[in-house]
Design brief:
By secondary structure, this protein is mainly alpha-helical. It contains 9 helices and no strands. The chain has one domain: Orthogonal Bundle (Hypothetical protein af1432), CATH 1.10.3210. It binds fe (ii) ion (FE2).
Length: 196
């Protein structure tokens, strides 16, 4: 009888070393850490948390940013959303772009609470620019991140903008939400699905 190949079989030592270095590179996100450590970022997120402390529906808090980042990374690594504008960047750089965009995409939310005529996506892009520049993102990288933030509520996105807007929605745990019956997303009778 033929032996079944097992995907979890022991890797060759040299392959294991390559994988280990790759994972180390992916985990190092110094520029994203600089964004998260900035006083302005903390102030924006604290303001949002305070303004949403009684909110029944989806919040725009730090957990949501983490979930959006990880969902976007999974969608990208699975090739679910083609992003030709990222093809010149290394895998590590792409992960930094994804995480920076995800962590910053809702920072303008407090401005929308202060003035309902404002769009938090557009406001967020304006607030994010100095944070990205101070963290050391190059101009072209900053432009990609700001575009994704500014467009994350649109339905006609493509590429990196679509990656963020899909992750923003698909990271929400709607399936288990206690406020589902009153949620505008499901007013037409649609049902939430478990997605990546
Ligand atoms: Fe969001």
């Amino acid at each position: 009888m033929k032996k079944r190949k097992h995907s979890l079989r022991k890797k060759k030592p040299e392959q294991a070393a390559v994988n280990e270095q790759r994972m180390k590179n992916l985990r190092e996100m110094k520029r994203v850490e600089a964004v998260l450590a900035s006083a302005s970022y903390k102030m924006y997120m604290d303001k949002i948390a305070e303004l949403e402390s009684e909110r029944r529906f989806c919040r725009h808090d730090r957990s949501h940013c983490w979930e959006t980042a990880r969902t976007a990374a999974v969608l990208f690594l699975l090739g679910e959303v083609p992003c030709p504008e990222l093809s010149d960047y290394s895998e590590e750089q792409v992960c930094e772009l994804i995480y920076a965009a995800a962590f910053l995409h809702d920072i303008g939310r407090f401005r929308e609470y202060e003035d309902a005529a404002k769009d938090h996506a557009v406001e967020g892009a304006m607030l994010a620019r100095p944070l990205l520049e101070e963290a050391g993102f190059a101009e072209a990288e900053t432009d990609l991140i700001l575009s994704a933030i500014a467009h994350h509520r649109r339905k006609d996105n493509a590429g990196f903008d679509l990656l963020l807007s899909r992750a923003d929605k698909e990271s929400r745990p709607c399936y288990d939400c206690y406020a589902l019956a009153d949620c505008k997303k499901y007013r037409d009778g649609g049902k939430p699905k478990i997605t990546v």
